[in-house]
Amino acid sequence: MTPDATEQRVLEAIRQRRELVNEALESDVPMAEPERLYEASRYLLKAGGKRLRPTVSLLTAEALADVEPMSEDYRAFPTLAGGSIDVMTAAASIEVIQSFTLIHDDIMDDDDLRRGVPAVHKEYDTETAILAGDTLYAKAFELLTQTGADPANGLEAVRRLATTCIRICEGQALDIEFEHRNGVLPDEYLNMIELKTAVLYGTAAAIPAVLMGADDDVVEALYQYGIESGSAFQIQDDVLDLTVPSEKLGKQRGSDLVENKETIILLHARQQGVDVENLVEAKTADELSEAEVQAAVDELDDAGSIDYAREMAEDLTEQAKARLDVLPDNESRDLLCDIADYLITRGY
Amino acid sequence: MTPDATEQRVLEAIRQRRELVNEALESDVPMAEPERLYEASRYLLKAGGKRLRPTVSLLTAEALADVEPMSEDYRAFPTLAGGSIDVMTAAASIEVIQSFTLIHDDIMDDDDLRRGVPAVHKEYDTETAILAGDTLYAKAFELLTQTGADPANGLEAVRRLATTCIRICEGQALDIEFEHRNGVLPDEYLNMIELKTAVLYGTAAAIPAVLMGADDDVVEALYQYGIESGSAFQIQDDVLDLTVPSEKLGKQRGSDLVENKETIILLHARQQGVDVENLVEAKTADELSEAEVQAAVDELDDAGSIDYAREMAEDLTEQAKARLDVLPDNESRDLLCDIADYLITRGY
Question: Which cofactors are reported in the record for this sequence (chains A, B) (predicted)?
Fold first, then answer.
């Protein structure tokens, strides 16, 4: 399958489920009093987003249950032991956690924009944004208790989500720490992106299996699928910033080079003796010339740093896809494979 | 029983359990990496505090199980259906939530001090304080999944804690809103303090009953006990600020009058036609004279506002104590009664 055909299939799978996910978020996180708090809590959820994580959750459920994609009601979805659960609410809870982390991250990083609209702390204020995040945080746990799953499975899902949230906080703390520290090692960086980003993909994939009563080895394989493809996604981001033409990227190619952003490419290059602090003279993305970027990319290429990152992303993706062997061979499993490929072929 | 004797009994009950609670917090929220994040997360927990909420949880468990106080291992505590649970971890999870809310509240209110030490966002920084609160938040849920309770009871406990956290956020949002709004009604104020403060007392009392498999009406009665005694506590705070001599209070009597703090007393007085904005001329607590405070207190007294608040606190306390009739008649139940009394007789 060509990258373009893969992307088409993935985007179609997402598109088919997105409206259902949006409806679920609307009804599972309804307006309430005080109005301003709930408006702020729902603001980012309503601003859109691909809904990639909930799509992964829904596809995992469909692959596990071995049913035709979109053939079952996600609100009364068959479990492996008979009976049914609301797998949509579980998928929504993952997106709600994602939304909470974005709101708090934007405060910490003082980012102005998110999903093309002002960040919550800009549209409202910092106090309201802290509280909106805190509200969503609890809401996600409340939702996850309401899937109708066997209580032992429900409790294990809650435990996994709680542990995941702790890991995300650890990842964000490391990300902040790395901005102020020289000599970050590639392994430390990989650990950081796993914690900050990949664990929530892993949990999105694993939680439906937990709720449906899958065996531990299936749950663990799905979790690793998410960890590995989520990590590959972050690494590929670094590659794309340097290698995709600016007009396709939608921003200046090589902007990571002027933003003092540590990437796996630069960390590798530093280990190879490249003077990464002086790869470009420009101080802002606006000052960057295409020629300057190309010279820097050539130097990183010579050091093997771009290949190092690209191969790492590809290896992780292959590992992620192999994890899916625990699932029945069906269309939803193929789509989960496609998503892993898409995460390192998309990006502009 | 005289107020002094009640206070002695309550403080002794707290003292006996505090060391065990502190040990549980130390082992249930251990140091981990990244170090700075975990130091910040543990900073306020280690700064002390009465541990009133965990004490309420432990006493509720003992009263329900009808065992001698301190006679059973809290880590292997008998449930009503046989078997045992770790009720200490449940008690710790309540204190961890309390700690998270204080850390985030102090950021929102930009308070410098907490429990006699710098607030977390002052000792560290705002980013770290947001993350420390977020880490504790998830930690509390993780802990509550690990009590060894029947999974259905464990899941219901998680649901209750999640809903409680949502309510606390709503209460804090209302508190912030009320600072910028005139004409807050007493009922709105009572709703706010119930959400912001009392629901966590209610949950501290109810969760052991949930985990131990008590009937719904027992759980609900214990929840209401906490709601009512927690609300009485907040209301009595307003009374004490005006009526306890400064030397006993440890700060200038009447400081609420200059801080534009809406209290149930001032809200009532405004409804009675008192010009509450001009009760005192002083703009800071330092400028307040004892004579000026006394004149203001006399005016509020004439309007019936102080009695209104005092009677409300007393009525709530009597209601709270009556809720405990669902429990077996034993020493722990008596101590829960004493705590309700103590909450409106202590305070300086």
Answer: Mg(2+)
Q: Do A141 and B141 touch (CB under 8 A)?
A: yes
Chain Cα centroid distance, residue A289: 31
CATH code of the region A3-345 = 1.10.600.10
Fold of B12-339: Farnesyl Diphosphate Synthase (1.10.600)
- Residues B263, B268, B273, CA angle at the centre, nearest 5°? 125
The answer to whether B29 touches B136, Cβ cutoff 8 Å, is yes
Chain A neighbors of B138, CB-CB under 8 A = 137, 162-166, 169
Instruction: Write out residues 69-128 of A within 8 Å (CB-CB) of B.
Output: 104, 107-108, 126-128
Q: What's the gap in Å between the CA of B279 and the closest CA on chain A?
A: 30
Query: What DSSP string runs through A229-294?
Result: HHHHHHHHHHHHHHHS-HHHHTS-TTGGGTTT---HHHHHHHHTT--GGGS---SSGGG--HHHHH
Name the residue in chain A with its Cα closest to that of B154.
A155
- Per-residue pLDDT tens over the stretch A337-348: 999 999 998 755
* A-chain residues near B137 (CB < 8 A): 134, 137-138, 165
Contacts of A133 in chain B (CB under 8 A): 134
Q: Do A33 and B139 touch (CB under 8 A)?
A: no
ipTM over cut 0.90: yes
The owner of tokens 């203001």 is: B296
CB B172, CB A131: distance < 8 Å: yes
Q: Using one digit for the tens of pLDDT, what is the confidence trace for B7-65?
A: 999 999 999 999 999 999 999 999 999 999 999 999 999 998 899 999 999 999 999 99
